Amino acid sequence: MHPIVKPALRRGWRDLNTVQFGMAPAHAIVLGPVDTATGSFLDLLNGTRGLPLLRDEGRRMGFPDGHVDGLLERLTRSGLLDDTTGGGPAADALRKKKAVLDRLRPDLASLSLVAPEPGEGMKRLAARRSLRVQVRGAGRVGVALASLLAGAGVGEVDVRDSGCVEPWDVAPGGLPAESIGERREEAARRAVRRAAPDRPPRTTPDGEELGLSLVILTPRDGLAVHAPDPVTAEPLITSGTPHLYAGVVEGTGVVGPLVLPGDTGCAGCLDQGRVDRDPTWPRLLAQWRSGQQRQVPACDLALAAGVAGMAAGHALAFLDGALPSSAGARWEASVPGFDWHSRPVWSHPACPCGAAEKGKKGERASEDGESHETMAGQQPYAARLSGTWRAHV
Hints:
By secondary structure, this protein is α/β, with parallel strands linked by helices. It contains 15 helices and twelve strands.
């Protein structure tokens, strides 16, 4: 182990005996009391020394036996310590690709903030290279989102769509102007390859094709993200494939829900819930789906970029083993205010996805004292799903 105080957090002394790591409240930590000699020793925790050498340095500085190990344990418990050699074999392989790792260093620094164990951030970054994500839809949102995932180190990002690139598909970070007239799918895949720091293997060490860790639906038709067709998602539900919706409809950006089949509300649950609240919903939906879209859709460029960025963030959080707030919820924002707010997508008893039935079982278990889930088994998802879905990806 080569300990290093997480470099992503800036250090400042609040007084002679109290040091603050980090500026932003989300990840800042205050540590004290810290004497002057120990404060000087912190400068030696830069990832260039192993434990034996650090202990020798501590003795030269007059520290008593066990002081260095105690300090390192304290920093580790606080989530402040990283390991420049940790992360396992996949991380070691990534370190050998210096040019690739240099591209990904900002992502690694960010992961170190949310991964408390030393070396865990590097482990998660290296694990992204073995993941496969499919993005269905190559418009202003879909291509930018796919490029972000590839640029963040996801091993394979496959984009699916039909038709040819139109002038209004062009967007910074997405399809370039020179791709107008080309097959949309081919142009999107080329943009994704340009964004990726390298091209990791597309098979497992045993030679098998990588399985899908996540499907992201980014339809160019705003109706398909505002009111996703449950029939389209049936194969994903049946196969147990996690999927996330993202797009823009009439000047409103939508991210979510992230559907974990059998656990969180899906497109069918969303549809059934709307029918319960508005009896005229089926009539309106039938008219919208039967009508032909003759105009260029309203898809503000800045809003599309915001949707792509937020959806990529939620996707990466899920792929890294966390549970983002889009699980069982939709985040929405509209121009010109760009005020993001969340709407829950509750599992519905009439939907065949089974999430509502599992939620009832969770509620019964809670009543019997076997569980601590709340809100009729619908929340919190993190406690109920973390083991199942981390194993899946």
